[in-house]
Amino acid sequence: MLRKFKKEIKGDELLSLILDTSEQIKDVNDTIYSITRIEKMAIKAFSAEWAILWFKDVKKDILYSLTIDKTKRTEIPTNIGLIGKALNMGKSVVLKLAIYENAYDPIIDNMLKVEQKDIIYYPILSENKDVIAILQISNHKKDLQQFREKDLDKLDIFEKHIAPIIRELRDSFIENKDVIKKDSNLNLEANETIKKLTQERDDAERMMASSNRFLAEVAHEIRTPMNAVMGFLELLQLDEDNDEKKLYIDTAIKSGAMMVALVNDLLDFAKIEQGMMELESLVFNPIEEYTTMGPLFASRMKKYNIIFNTFIDPNMPKKIESDPHRVKQVLSNLIGNAVKFTPKNGRILLNISFNKKNEELLFSVTDNGKGIAKSKQDKIFDAFKQEDKSTSREFGGTGLGLSISKKLTDLYGAQLKLESVEGKGSKFFFSIPLKNKIIDGAMQYNQEFINNVKIALIFKERCTYTSNILEKYFKAFGIKNSQIEKLDNWDKINIDNTTHIFCGKDTLNKESIQNMLNHNITVTIMKDDIFKNYKEGLKGDIHELPCAFGPDKLYKVMSGRNLLKDMNNCQVKRDLALVVDDNSINIQFLKAVLDKLGIDIEGAENGKEAIEKYKKSIKSIRPYKIIFMDENMPIMGGNETTKNIIEIEKKNNYPHIPIIGLSGDSTEEHIQNSIDAGMDDSITKPVHIKDISNVLKKFLNKK
Length: 703
Fold this sequence. Notes:
The protein is an alpha/beta fold. It is 44% helix and 21% strand. The protein has 5 domains: 2-182, Beta-Lactamase (2-Layer Sandwich); 204-273, Orthogonal Bundle (Helix Hairpins); 281-442, Heat Shock Protein 90 (2-Layer Sandwich), CATH 3.30.565.10; 447-564, Response regulator (Rossmann fold); 573-700, Response regulator (Rossmann fold, 3-Layer(aba) Sandwich), CATH 3.40.50. Keywords: Coiled coil, Kinase, Phosphoprotein, Transferase. It holds the Pfam family HATPase_c. InterPro entries: 2C_system_His_kinase, CheY-like_superfamily, GAF-like_dom_sf, HATPase_C_sf, HATPase_dom, His_kinase_dom, HisK_dim/P_dom, HisK_dim/P_sf.
C-alpha cells in the first residue's frame, strides 16, 4: 500500500498559511467559524489529522471546546490526562506515541474518539503569563510521519500572529460577546503584518516553484537519453575483446552510472521538496532485507581496501510493516558518504539493532576516517554542500545524498544525527519506531545447539574488529562468554573442547585447519576479499564468510540450518514450483528470483525427470502450483513433456497446473507452437524478474 507523505510546511509556507487564515477571520463576526479556521490552519501547518482549541474557564477550573459539538460547550477537567499535565507545565510539548504515555487518558486526551498517535500541546498565555487556552494537535496512528521537537519552532510564528487573535477570542467570551472586536491598534498591526506577509509569501513561492520545477524537468530530460547510453555501452562491452577499449568502455559506464545516480538524487530531492515523496507500507523480513547491504558495497570496499563490517541484529522481529527501500536508500547514502571520508585500510561499520523495550530499530554507520570539523557539522545536511570540496573532485557527487537522507528520516518522524571528532571519524545514526508495526516476533533459536557450541576465535590485531562483531553475534544468539575462547595461534586450541573455529586470513594455516577438520571441527575463514577462495584444497566442514555478513549466513555455517528458511517455516508454507531446464545456472537464477517472490522451487534437468517429479508431487501434501519449462532439452523437450503432463491430468482428472515456457526464440510461430502443446504462457529469454512477477500475478494471483 502506498502512503504519500504530507508536504512539510516550511517557514515561508507557514507565513502564507497564517496570512490566509488571518484574512479569512479578520472581518468575520462568527466566533465558532474563527476557531474552526484556526484549528484547520493548525492541522495543515503540522501535517496533522485533528486539532482542538480548548479555552480555560478560570472560575469553573475547566477547559471547554466550542467546535467538538457546535450546539454546546464540551467541558473537561484541568487536572487529568496529558492535557492536564501540559496545562500545569505551561509550555509547549511534543509527545511521540502519546497513547503509550503513563499519564495518557483515553477519554480526556481523546474527546474526538479517533485513532491518534502523537500529540502536540500548545498553551496560549495571557499578557500576565497565565494559561488562557491550549491548542491540541494530533495525527493518525497509521501515519508514517511523526511530530518532531523541531515542530515547536513553528509555534514561535503562531505566538506572534495567532496567539493575539486567540486572546481576543477568549476576551470576547468573558465580555459575553458573539463577535471578535479588535481594537484599532490591533487592527493596524494586523493589516501591516498581512501586507508584509503577502509580499514575503509571493516572493518565496515564486522562487521555490521555479527552482523545483527546473530541477525535476532537467532530471527527467537527462534520464531518458542516459538509459539508452548505458544500455548500448553495456552491449559494446559484451562484444569487445580489446582490453584497452574495454577499459575505456568500463570508465564510460561508471561515469554514466554516476550521472544516473545524480539524476535520481535530483528527482528525489524535488519530490521531497514538493511533498510528493511516496512510501510503500510493506510487510517484510528486516533481517533478510537489510543483510543485502553487505554484498551491495563489497566491490567498492575492496577497491579502497576498507574493512566493511555489518551487524544485523538476529533478534529483530521476523516480520514488520514499513518501507524497506527508503531506509536502504538512507543507509546507502550514509555508507557511500563514509567511504569518501575513510582512508585506505580504514574501517566502516553498519549496525542495525532492535530495542525491544522501546520497540524501535536503531541504525548507525560508523567510520574511522578523518571526521568532520565542528564548525561544518551544522551545514553537512544542507543540499549541495560538502565538508570538503576535494571530496567532490575525487568521488563525485553534489552533496545531495546527506540532504535527502536527512529529509527522509525527518519525514519518518525520526532524526538523522551526527557525532564526529575531527581526525578520529564519524557516526551517523537514526531510529525508526515499530509500535503497531511488528507483525511477527523474534526468532527462537535451537537452545540445545546454542548451549553445546564451543568457539575458538583466532585473529591478529588488524582483524580484531571482525572478531568483536562475531562475539556480538554469538551473544545475540544466546551463546555465553564461557563458550568463547580468543586465541592468537592454532597450537593453543583444545581439540576436545572445541566445536567451531573462526579465523582471519592473517592467521590462515591450511595444515592446522585440515587437522581441525579431521577432528570434525567446523572451521570458518573470515575474508575481506569476497572474490578470493581460501578453502581450496581443504576437505571437511570448511566455510568462508565475508566481513560484511549477516546472521543468516553465520547461523548456517555454525548449525548447518538456514536461518531465513527456519523463520519462514514458522509461518504459512509457501507455494512450490517446478523449474525444468538442462542449464543449472538458469535453475539457480529462477530459484533466486522465485525465492524473492515467495515461491520455493524444485529443479529437473530434462522432461523425463520432470514427469517423474510431477507424478510424485500431485500425490504429496505439497503439490506444485506452477511449472516453468525450458523448451530445448536432451532426452525429452519442453513441448513433448507438456503434452505428457496434460495427458496425465486429463486421464486422472487431476487439477491443471499452469505451465510456462522458457524459450530463446521470440517469434510468434514458436510461441504459438508452445501454446498448442498445452503451455499456458511463454517467457522469452533472457528472463527478467518483471516477467516472472507478471506470470505469478496472472496464474497464482501473487502480488
